[in-house]
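Milestone M4 deliverable, item 7.
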Amino acid sequence: MDNNEKTNTPHPLVQEAVGAMVMDPTEGIVLPAPGAEKLKKSLAQYFGRRDLRNAVVALVSLAARAFDHGGKKAAETLVKVCGTATEALRKLKEAGLAMQVSALEAGRKFAKFVGETSKAPNTIVNHTAPKASPPGTLRAHQLGAIHHRG
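Output delivered:
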């Protein structure tokens, strides 16, 4: 159990991503390129570590929440960021999660994720964790911390 699970605070990468997100008047919630690049570098620090899985699941959960709140662009960018961890997940014997992230990034399952439904489906299946959101993921009410630009 890591510190985030003990305190139920958002994962550090989720906090970083939310801090970089902005509200665009025409595109909704977005994660600008500089923030995405910094997030990729931060995620890369988890490569080879056992907690990489938690980091990726937390970011994908954030993508789903961002999408639910008008952040299609932010969700797309977050999935691309997670896609950079695919090979590292495979090396950690997390092939199932790696395949799901690859599918999201490639667009096979991502089409459903960003479809015209009112609610994005749960696209990452975590067979080892309870049905509740993983500890450290951003809660919907915390999206209010996203900066507005206009």
